[in-house]
Structure formats: structure tokens, C-alpha cells
Amino acid sequence: MMILNASCRPNARLVSWGAMMRANGEARTKGDDLREKILATALDLFSTHGYFNTSIQDIRRKADVSTGAIYHHFQNKEALAKSLYESLLRQMEDAIVQECQQCSGCFNQSRAIIDRLFRLTVEQPKVMQFVLLAQHREYLPGEPPICSSRPFQIMRQVIEQGMAAGEVRQMELWVAATTMFGGALRMMNLYLDEVLEYPLPDYTDEVANAAWRGICP
């Protein structure tokens, strides 16, 4: 009987711990979902009204969460904006890296980057508006300028490698990278300002070819 009881107790305890682990897993998932909901709401409000015209209470009301829930995940509004900015830059970086891995050659990679950025601008306009147009250094003074972020570093690396391979004529790297991608970034701004006559992706080839003529040998 003692052996039987001893063998039953661990099983009962395992069930108990298993239930607790599942509950903890669900709590973590709900916590992650809540954090993403807060970030998505902040993105919507920051893009629509601007950082300074959006308060924590505005985010709380639109997200339909408690103030405590926001402060559980973010120390303050600046920390929330920083997390959002870093998250969106990582997404942009992943998209650019993915495009570069699918083709070779400086022109092909540059065109693929432009195409992906154009599609991202159409599919996620608020994301691109926040990343490209918001004056981040006004409220995130510790952040480097957008041109020093990882996505833009990768874009310069593509041009630098093209220069080393003889695909791009020798010139100042910043000049070459700006020539290749600056026009595309301006077109994205024009799209977000609703100025363009045609869908943004329709301009991909013309923009890429015109830029390439400025840096090819």
C-alpha cells in the first residue's frame, strides 16, 4: 500500500505542475498579445496624430486596456515609442535581408530592395510613415538617425559590395547609396502624401533603372 501511494503521489503532482505550466504558458501568450495590441494602437495614434499629440490615456482608451497594463509593459510613453520604433526597424531589416538573399548582383539586389520597400509602403502605410517621416530624435534623443539604422546600413553594404565587384563606379559611398535609394525613399513619401497618380509599385522599374544609371560604370 505504501508503494502504491508513493507511486500515485508523483503522478498527482505531475498533473498539478503540468496544469500550472500550461496556465503560465497561456499567461505569457496573453501578455505577449496584450503588448502587441498596445504597440499596434500606439502606431495607429502616433501615425495619425503624432507622438506629442498622443497620450498614454489615448492609447489606453483606443486599445481598451488598463493604464496599469500599459505601464506593466512599458515604463513610459518614450519607452513605448522606442520599443515600437525598434520593432518596426527589425521588421524592415528582415524584409530587406530576405530580398537580398533571393538574388545576386548589386542592381538586382537594389531593385529587389526598392520593390519590397514600395510594397511595404502600400501594405503597411502607417508603419512606413512612422519609420520614415516621424521626427524620432525629437522624442527619442538617444536613438541614432534613421540613416544609421540597420536597414539603411544593409542598403549601403549592397552598394559597397557592388563597388568592390566593379558593378558600381568608384565614388563616395554615401553619394552612391543616396543616388540608388534616395529617389525611391522620396517616392514613398509622395505616396504617403497621396501625390502619386499611379500605384507605387508601378514605378519600381523606372525608379530603379534611373537610379542605377547614376552609379553604374
Automatic annotation (TrEMBL):
Segments forming domain HTH tetR-type: 32-92
GO molecular function: DNA binding
Membrane-spanning residues: none
Pfam families linked to this entry: TetR_N
This protein's UniProt keywords: DNA-binding
InterPro entries according to UniProt: DNA-bd_HTH_TetR-type_CS, Homeodomain-like_sf, HTH-type_TetR-like_transc_reg, HTH_TetR, Tet_transcr_reg_TetR-rel_C_sf
Keyword Protein biosynthesis (UniProt): no
DNA-binding region residue numbers: 55-74
PANTHER family: HTH-TYPE TRANSCRIPTIONAL REGULATOR RUTR
The protein, known as: Transcriptional regulator, TetR family
Originating organism: Thiothrix nivea (strain ATCC 35100 / DSM 5205 / JP2)
Lineage: Bacteria, Pseudomonadati, Pseudomonadota, Gammaproteobacteria, Thiotrichales
